[in-house]
């Protein structure tokens, strides 16, 4: 890895760049960040990153090009760089609902494309990133894995599951945040001050997630440990289920997946 260009250096693009530098994969000077407004990249410049508002110039000599723009913007960006791309450059797309074939239709059939779907926890190096491709080499996939492992965990999946990954992992951040918010509001209802209730809900949610990650156990097995006969936990769980907790979560994820699949064509 000698040079990497990130087109569209918003929260995800800049977080990825910082993660790569922190883990030592790249030096700041080996990463070029682009944005339409060069003034918005002053912090990045001060940290030693290359910056540009010209995407065609920015990809010159880059081994890896990350397309970190919205699905509605990616077509214009690809049309802009298509004539300047070389066949030995690896293209990573993080745009929801944009297939490898969609990218190749504009950048060329001989283009090497890998899709990646991180989430906003990338900002603290805790992203759950799913990656997929149609026919990129194992070396290309390994390169993308190393890049995104610098900002969290990575799972390689089949490309047809990428819109599902968007719903479960990218949209999922908002779903779990809403659940934490609801728990904190419940805490206020039963007597806690808002700031205390929120802190308690956040730490409880973090503890639950870490418990599963560190023990590699199933949620239901951990639930069984805290539900006793005629107890308060099972009473609360059953009330939530009677009001559609699991059903609402599942329906929301399914609807988000349907929406993600159509973003590119909107």
UniProtKB/TrEMBL annotation:
Q: What are the annotated GO cellular component locations? A: cytoplasm
Could you tell me which residue ranges the Pyrroline-5-carboxylate reductase catalytic N-terminal domain spans? 3-97
Localization per record:
Cytoplasm
EC annotation?
1.5.1.2
GO terms assigned for molecular function? pyrroline-5-carboxylate reductase activity
Residue positions binding NADPH: 55
Q: What does this protein do?
A: Catalyzes the reduction of 1-pyrroline-5-carboxylate (PCA) to L-proline.
**Name of the protein this chain belongs to:** Pyrroline-5-carboxylate reductase
**What's the gene?**
proC
């Amino acid at each position: 890895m000698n040079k990497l260009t990130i087109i569209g250096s918003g929260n995800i693009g800049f977080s990825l760049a910082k993660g790569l530098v922190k883990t030592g994969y790249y030096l700041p000077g080996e990463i070029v960040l682009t944005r339409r407004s060069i003034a918005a990249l002053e912090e990045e410049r001060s940290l030693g990153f290359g910056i540009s508002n010209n995407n065609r110039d920015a990809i010159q000599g880059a081994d890896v090009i990350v397309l970190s723009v919205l699905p509605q913007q990616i077509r214009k960006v690809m049309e802009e760089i298509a004539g300047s791309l070389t066949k030995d450059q690896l293209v990573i797309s993080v745009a929801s609902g944009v297939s490898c074939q969609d990218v190749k239709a504009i950048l060329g059939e001989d283009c090497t494309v890998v899709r990646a779907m991180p989430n906003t926890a990338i900002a603290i190096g805790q992203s759950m990133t799913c990656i997929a491709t149609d026919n990129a080499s194992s070396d290309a996939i390994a390169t993308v894995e190393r890049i995104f492992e610098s900002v969290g965990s990575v799972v390689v999946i089949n490309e047809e599951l990428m819109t599902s990954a968007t719903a479960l992992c990218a949209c999922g951040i908002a779903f779990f945040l809403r659940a934490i918010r609801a728990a904190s509001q419940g805490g206020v209802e039963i007597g806690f001050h808002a700031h205390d209730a929120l802190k308690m809900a956040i730490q409880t949610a973090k503890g639950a997630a870490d418990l599963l990650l560190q023990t590699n156990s199933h949620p239901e097995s951990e639930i069984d440990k805290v539900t006793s006969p005629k107890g308060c936990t099972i009473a609360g769980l059953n009330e939530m289920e009677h009001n559609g907790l699991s059903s609402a979560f599942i329906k929301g994820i399914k609807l988000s997946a349907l929406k993600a699949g159509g973003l590119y064509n909107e």
